[in-house]
Amino acid sequence: MADAIPPTSPTPVNEKRGTAQAPPANLGGTTVSVGGNPGDLQAAINAALNPDGTHKGDTLVVPAGVTYSQLIFPPTTGPGWTRIISSGNLPPDGTRVTPADTAECFQVVAGDTQRAISQTATFGSNGWIVKGMEAKHAISSFQFGLIDIWFSHRWILEHCYIHGFADQLLVRDMFIYGADDIQLWDCWISEAQNEGNSDSQAIFFRNNTRFHVENCQLEGAAECVILGDEGAATTTWSSDGVFRRNDFFKPIHWLRLLRDGSANPDFIPPPSGTQWSIKNNFEIKVGRRILVEGNRMTNCWPQGQDGTSILYNGGLSNRGLPTQDVMFRHNIVRNANGGISVNTIWDGMSHARLAFLNNMFVDIVGRFFMLLHKCDDVWIEHNTCIPLQGPNQGPLLPTSMFFAWDGPNLMPRLTVKHNAYARGLSGGVTAQGAQPTTAAFDGFVPDREFVANHEIGASSASQLAGVVFQPSASAAGINLSTGVLLTGSPLIGTAADGSDIGVNFDTLNAAQNEGSGIMAILNVAITNQVLEHTVNYTGVRVRFQRSTDGGVTFTDVQSATRALGSTADSYSVPVGQSGHYRAGAALTDGTVFGTEVFSNVIQLAVFMVSTPQTITLAIA
């Protein structure tokens, strides 16, 4: 039996930032100071082109804090560029813009029926770099979208804050359609939300080739990001895409009811007063050659669908468009009703070469993984899944992995290796129409590789070859709050290649933090209402993690990063607050309470609402 065939890697975007091929700092033209009247930026954009539509190579410096009208980008010709940049004090490359930086941005404000950015009806507006822009609508009533990039190529958006309003219906922040070589870096894209069961996205990609999204905040109610559209007759693949080090995030003020059925006091209702449509953090309908690496996908609950965080949904294989060659690795999926669902359509053409490697799943209510119908070369290896501790609170049966095939031999080379996961209330590895035994699986998926998967919390011996039952977390030597293997764990060094079972944390942290890795773990007991601890590291990343449950309730602070420059500076977490995470009820063990980047001396003051507690400070 052979292992799954790995996915084909995506082709990188042309002229990618940070490479020798990126647009140079000096584009060859002049530096133009843009005026402060509402139409001055549009006039400067028009003037940046020669009569034949080629770029002059100008840099347009736009005064921070000034508001401009809708921008319509004209057609261009040739390979050149124009740069549009705020005069404000923007964060350095690699540091995400936040709502706190709005004063450093120039603003583009769309009218009631307008986009903030669009192209002329002939499209083909290529070669634009936009840095330090805030885009929004003038009013908080229904708007279809903010930014359209249609049939236009070579766009780079950096340090842009693109958003709606907390109580506004906004179908999507960005619609990128038929466009190639699109790059988004260090942006904050949020408050795309719709009600009932209607869709909304931070970014909707359709029929694109070569796109790169890195270090962005992506907040969409239905989907933070979606690739493809099943309902459109003109749909083709979105291909050669990279999503790296982003936060796919759903704020808790979209949640109407808490898990115990009580009303969420932080809920902000839509105009109808009902509920927002919540579906997935990331969905692929039609895609190929996609890399999803080092991202954080946080919060997904049943309120429109079943609350699965990552969904590969069907594709259009009946039109020759199956989803193929997708690598999902080194990601953290947190606080979701389900982890991953691959819902393929069987009509003679297979979805193929889908890999899920070295991912961490924390506080998953239902299934860690579900694979349906027909798919070739699915590869699931070195993942760790920690379920939400307590009874199932959603519609998904709390099994660990569920397979449902439409007949025998429809999942060739299914490879499931070296995963660590806690057994659900209804079982671990289960399959529709087959008992979790070697003989039953042989009848449906004889061409499979199941090796050294450890199922924690199983009371009897496994009947399925390649699945090892561990009666308890203690027997497995695993911390069920963090997924970390403890000294003496039988999961250490017992993979076929000599590595540990489950997640490799060094590799995970390197992908999350651009190679910094974890430098230290500090466990600090709290015996009163305030913890103060000083750490002397330079340029470190700090994560707050509670290791015991005592009714501590955290909400949200807008700024995700904050530089501290001296020993006099401190970062305080007041009662009910953290750096990044929000919840209306007590959170369970292992929840990460924020991600902050500091320099020089760090002083942390954490105010608790009950004692005693223990806080883990993960210094990375």
What is this structure, in a nutshell?
The protein has 620 residues and is mainly β. The protein is elongated and about 75 Å long.
Account of the 3D structure:
Among the domains are: 279-515; 518-619. The strands form six sheets. The protein has a 14-stranded parallel sheet. It has a 14-stranded parallel sheet with strand order 3-6-9-12-15-18-21-24-27-30-33-36-39-40. The two termini are 40 Å apart. The radius of gyration is 24 Å and the shape is elongated. It has 620 residues and is mainly beta.
User: How many distinct helices?
Assistant: 4
Q: Strand portion, in percent?
A: 35-45%
Oligomer: single chain
Principal-axes geometry comes out as elongated
Structural class by secondary-structure content: mainly beta
Q: Could you tell me how far the N terminus lies from the C terminus, measured between alpha carbons in angstroms?
A: 40 Å
Give the biggest sheet: 14 strands, parallel
Rg result: 24 Å
Mean pLDDT: 79
Strand adjacency order, main sheet: 1-2-5-8-11-14-17-20-23-26-29-32-35-38
Low-confidence stretches: 390-395, 515-620
Number of strands: 47
Portion in helices:
under 10%
Features:
47 strands; 620 residues; 14-stranded parallel beta sheet; disordered C terminus; mainly beta; 4 helices; elongated
